[in-house]
C-alpha cells in the first residue's frame, strides 16, 4: 500500500488550519447535525495512544440538570480562581470569558481510563501517565477536526474534577480531563482570545530549538 501524497495546496490549507484553530468561548446556539458530531468523535479516535490502548472516553452531556450542575461547578471554581488573585491581576481576570457553556449547543466531557485493559499495559510500566497523554491527543485531534469544518471547541478546565465526576456519575478509575463546549463560533479569529484581550501572547522564543 502506498501512502497518500498530500499536494502543496493541501499543506498550505493545513497551515491555515493550525493558525485558525481557536479556543472558542462565544458560540452560536445552532446545533450541529448528529452525523457531524459522530464524524468528530470518529476522527478523534484516530489519535495515537500508548500500546494502542485508546484510553479516551467521551461523554455527551445533554441532560439540563447535569449541565446546570457543571455550570455551577464552573462558577464556584472561577470565583475561587478570582479570590486567589489581587489588584490589577484580579480586575483583569474578572473581565475574561473563560467558558462558552451557556450558549454552546453541545457539551462533551472527556475522561481517561487510567487502567485500560486494551493495550495490555504496553508502554505504561515506566510512565503510567502516558494514558492521560494519549487521551489528550484525542482531544487535540477532535479540536482540529472541528476547526477544519468551521466548528468551534472551547476547553473548560476551571472545574472541580471530583465534583464533575460525581455530577456525571463517572466510574472511579476514569480521570476527568476536559469539558468541551462545541458549536459554531460567533466569529472566526486567527489569534487567541487571551492575546486579543491583552492577557498573554504567543512567545516567539518558544519556536526555537534548544540544542544539547
Ligand atoms: C489544558 C487546557 C485547558 C484550558 N482551559 C481553559 C479554560 O478553562 N477556559 C478557557 O477559556 N480556555 C481554556 N483553555 C484554552 C486556552 O486558553 C487557549 O488554548 C490558549 O489561550 C490559546 O488560544 P487558542 O487555543 O485559541 O490558540 C485551555 C486550554 C488547554 C490546552
TrEMBL record:
E.C. no: 1.13.11.79
Residues annotated as domain Nitroreductase: 20-184
InterPro entries to which the protein is assigned, alphabetical: BluB, Nitroreductase, Nitroreductase-like, Nitroreductase/BluB
Record SUPFAM superfamilies: FMN-dependent nitroreductase-like
Gene3D superfamilies: NADH Oxidase
A UniProt-annotated Pfam family: Nitroreductase
GO molecular function, one term: 5,6-dimethylbenzimidazole synthase activity
Entry keywords, A to Z: Oxidoreductase
Keyword Oxidoreductase recorded: yes
Top-level taxonomic group: Bacteria
Listed name of the protein: 5,6-dimethylbenzimidazole synthase
Organism (species): Acetobacter vaccinii
The organism's taxonomic lineage, starting at the top: Bacteria, Pseudomonadati, Pseudomonadota, Alphaproteobacteria, Acetobacterales
Gene it is expressed from: bluB
Amino acid at each position: 500500500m502506498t501512502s497518500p501524497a498530500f499536494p502543496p495546496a493541501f499543506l498550505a490549507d493545513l497551515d491555515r488550519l493550525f493558525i485558525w484553530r481557536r479556543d472558542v468561548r462565544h458560540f452560536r446556539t445552532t446545533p450541529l447535525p448528529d452525523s457531524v458530531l459522530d464524524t468528530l468523535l470518529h476522527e478523534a479516535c484516530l489519535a495515537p495512544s500508548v500500546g494502542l490502548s485508546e484510553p479516551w472516553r467521551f461523554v455527551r452531556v445533554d441532560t439540563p440538570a447535569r449541565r446546570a450542575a457543571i455550570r455551577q461547578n464552573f462558577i464556584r471554581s472561577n470565583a475561587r480562581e478570582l479570590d486567589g488573585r489581587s489588584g490589577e491581576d484580579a480586575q483583569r481576570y474578572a473581565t475574561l470569558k473563560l467558558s462558552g457553556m451557556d450558549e454552546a449547543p453541545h457539551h462533551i466531557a472527556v475522561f481517561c481510563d487510567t487502567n485500560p485493559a486494551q493495550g495490555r499495559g504496553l508502554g505504561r510500566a515506566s510512565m503510567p501517565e502516558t494514558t492521560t497523554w494519549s487521551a489528550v491527543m484525542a482531544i487535540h485531534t477532535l479540536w482540529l477536526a472541528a476547526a477544519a469544518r468551521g466548528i468551534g471547541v472551547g476547553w473548560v478546565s476551571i472545574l472541580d474534577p471530583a465534583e464533575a465526576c460525581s455530577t456525571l456519575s463517572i466510574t472511579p478509575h476514569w480521570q476527568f480531563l476536559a469539558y468541551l463546549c462545541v458549536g459554531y463560533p460567533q466569529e472566526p479569529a486567527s489569534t487567541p482570545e487571551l492575546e486579543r484581550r491583552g492577557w498573554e501572547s504567543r512567545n516567539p522564543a518558544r519556536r526555537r530549538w534548544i540544542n544539547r
